């Protein structure tokens, strides 16, 4: 199942596990501070990616993704000129709040709603069993080298697969250059949950009746995939 996210980022995965009241956050280990790498030759640099998830006791949830991507070459324009978001239409709603381009001179180019197409996901066409999977394709307006692309999406699960249960999985960046990556998960404070985080532990706090888990990550160098475990 394709996760409801920007597939072109390529570093996040949402996996539905067995229906148990657990949150599973898969976090790659952080490396010690190293000298700042030269990023001028990168096709793009993800300056910020922030995911915020909130779960309720009845199994409903909401998720918000916010991103800023600096485009540094024509390859970056090709990579991000057409955005693809996947989502499950049968369990809730998915909205693109904005897609916009900030120019070096400070001007902003908004991508209008007519540039968004909603269609069945490719797997749906190949395997009709997954008939609730959809994709939104966004042709980004005015994107050029030197621009900063910004987008924000919101997803609401109103018909959970397992009422009364919730679970999620997240994997931090290892293939792309990301200056600031954050994950925030909010759950009811009286709900017992299980956190599996192999190396990096979250910061845990409370706001009102909610318990909030927060992870931070940066990835300033490409990882050697041949040595990744």
Describe the structure in brief.
Helices cover 5% and strands 42% of the residues. By secondary structure, the chain is mainly beta. The longest helix has 7 residues, at 74-80.
Walkthrough of the structure:
The protein has a single domain, classed as Immunoglobulin-like (Sandwich), CATH 2.60.40. The chain is 5% helix and 42% strand. The chain has two helices and 13 strands; from the N terminus they run E-E-E-H-E-E-E-E-H-E-E-E-E-E-E. It has helices at residues 74-80, 122-126, and strands at 23-24, 44-55, 61-71, 82-88, 92-102, 108-110, 116-120, 133-139, 148-157, 178-188, 195-196, 203-207, 210-219. The strands form three sheets. An eight-stranded mixed beta sheet has the order 6-5-9-3-2-10-13-12, with helices on one face. A three-stranded antiparallel beta sheet has the order 4-8-7. Strands 1-11 form a two-stranded parallel ribbon. A hairpin with a 2-residue loop joins strand 12 (203-207) and strand 13. The longest helix is centred in the middle third of the chain and has 7 residues, at 74-80. The radius of gyration is 18 Å and the shape is globular. The relative contact order is 0.28.
